Recover the amino acids of this structure.
């Protein structure tokens, strides 16, 4: 069902499959008043009740993120076990234990707070199994001491996620599970947990099978005609490249992807043998989204490319600057891209506007390359 649904939605280029796991503590509420009333009804007085209402719990899950705002998750959960022990007069006892586990299907929203932090509410359907064990001592007689029940119910929760890398994220969550206890009652079990989520490789962006590059060059410096043995003319020095932001970055992110680094490395290779005054890195967004969001994202992306050029290619920091620009400098024509706001067709059409440009100023050959 997830695969069939995703085939028409993932065209936007920012959908992703992922898996994950959480572990933490579950907390239940044991209705001591009901236990005491049940014992009183058969003439047994309760003197004390000791509860075990907390336990280790975990869950494992897999999901599909349709876009940066919505995902579906399916998983298995084990909420652990809970118990009580009632001491009675005459000196007898009653103990009860319950274990809870099941599977779930959740609708998960995602609200980005920053480029790396996001909050995600969830609402889900559960199919759980409750297994009860009761035992009495002395006058406390328990009939049918082992009981179990499978039932459907709901759950809800909220969490916070931090993207460590493009693929790996960390989560902290608080959830509430509605549970049938196999003896005719319903109650809530809370789960407080932390864990990780791992995203598999994202699909290549639409209409951009390879990084888009346009290179303007200066005329080559020719050797002096009278020199009988001159070196071959040096390679032309590129003045500007434009690289698709969809090939450099994941949707809404500012970490340079492996598949986008080759264009920057090729550019650095072409710069060898030349001197220049300054490299200016400018990040551009399309016209979708708010001005403030676009400026901040394009500025971070330009800074990421600057850092990569410095670290990977050894360009001094004093010779490179970066800045961000919003969608006011598009490559597409004003009437070229039409469609509903944030539709897949419109996002694909505006792909050329989402780019990072690196411009070289003051280029000249090194002294050793002069004839």
């Amino acid at each position: 069902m997830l695969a069939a649904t995703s085939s028409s939605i993932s065209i936007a280029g920012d959908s992703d499959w992922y898996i994950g796991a959480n572990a933490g503590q579950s907390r239940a509420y044991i209705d001591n008043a009901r236990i005491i009333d049940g014992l009183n009804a058969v003439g047994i007085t309760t003197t004390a009740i000791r509860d075990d209402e907390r336990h280790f719990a975990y869950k494992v899950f897999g999901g599909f993120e349709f876009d940066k705002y919505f995902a579906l998750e399916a998983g298995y959960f084990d909420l652990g076990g809970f118990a009580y022990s009632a001491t009675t007069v005459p000196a007898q006892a009653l103990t009860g234990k319950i274990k809870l586990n099941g599977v779930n299907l959740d609708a998960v929203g995602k609200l980005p707070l920053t480029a790396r932090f996001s909050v995600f509410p969830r609402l889900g359907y559960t199919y759980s199994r409750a297994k009860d064990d009761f035992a009495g001592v002395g006058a406390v007689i328990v009939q049918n001491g082992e009981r179990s029940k499978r039932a459907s119910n709901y759950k809800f929760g909220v969490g916070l996620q931090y993207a460590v890398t493009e693929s790996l994220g960390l989560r902290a969550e608080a959830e509430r599970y509605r549970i049938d206890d196999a003896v005719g009652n319903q109650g809530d079990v809370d789960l407080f947990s932390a864990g990780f989520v791992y995203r598999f490789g994202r699909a290549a962006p639409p209409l951009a099978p390879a990084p888009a590059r346009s290179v303007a060059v200066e005329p080559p410096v020719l050797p002096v005609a009278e020199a009988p043995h001159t070196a071959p003319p040096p390679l032309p020095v590129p003045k500007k490249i434009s690289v698709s932001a969809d090939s450099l970055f994941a949707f809404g992110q500012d970490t340079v992807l492996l598949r986008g680094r080759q264009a920057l490395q090729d550019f650095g290779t072409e710069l060898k043998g030349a001197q220049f005054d300054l490299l200016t890195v400018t990040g551009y967004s399309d016209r979708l989204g708010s001005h403030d969001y676009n400026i901040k994202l394009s500025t971070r992306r330009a800074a990421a490319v600057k850092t990569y050029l410095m670290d990977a290619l050894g360009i001094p920091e004093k010779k490179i600057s970066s800045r961000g620009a919003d969608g006011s400098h598009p490559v597409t024509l004003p009437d070229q891209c039409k469609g509903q706001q944030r539709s897949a067709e419109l996002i694909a059409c505006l792909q050329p506007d989402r780019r990072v440009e690196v411009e070289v100023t003051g280029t000249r050959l090194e002294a050793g390359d002069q004839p």
